[in-house]
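We read letters as residues; the fold follows as tokens. Both lines appear below.
***
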Amino acid sequence: MRYALLILLLLTPGLVRAQAEALENPGAVSAIQERRFRMHHELLLGVGVLPANAYYKGLVGTVGYTYHFSDTFGWQVGRGTYSYNLQTSLRKQLERDFNTSPNAAAFQDQVQWMVGSDLIWSPLYGKMAFLNESVLHIEAFLLGGGTVVKLDRDGGFKPAVNVGLGLRLFTGKTLSLRLDVTNNTVFTGPTRVIQVPLIQFGTAFNFGATE
């Protein structure tokens, strides 16, 4: 009984303070606004770069379609990426000064194109003021899926696991801008993998959504 009285005495000041705040702000409520823009059928056109390989840099173009089941969950049903590859100065030097064959194994990890599919989870959506003149509606998302990668070699079709994250800036009901940063882990052999990161900026066209 003594312990109960002691606990009650300790809690009383906090309860009194909470009651006083409630009386001072009788109309205070907490509310979360509905999101203004929603996605349904999304067509993506993107451009980007494969920056990591020491022997080439890829300039890529991507086309993709995503079906959005809800505000937070979607399926990127298909995406296709083509890479226009530029040789680096290191590769040119190796071929010129050391007579390295253009078909050397080190050069055959060059990506020609990729096709794949991903699940997309968008847990974050918000808005912020820009220079106190306009409101930006922004979404953050995570994605993961599978890819078939075509490398520049005989029998160059290789499986890969794709993971990444992205940001979306809504400019209107039917148009948004996407920034995707992804990485494909490509299984090139029984005990060998290569990493193919991609940085991509895209324009997304949205069809069939409500505002």
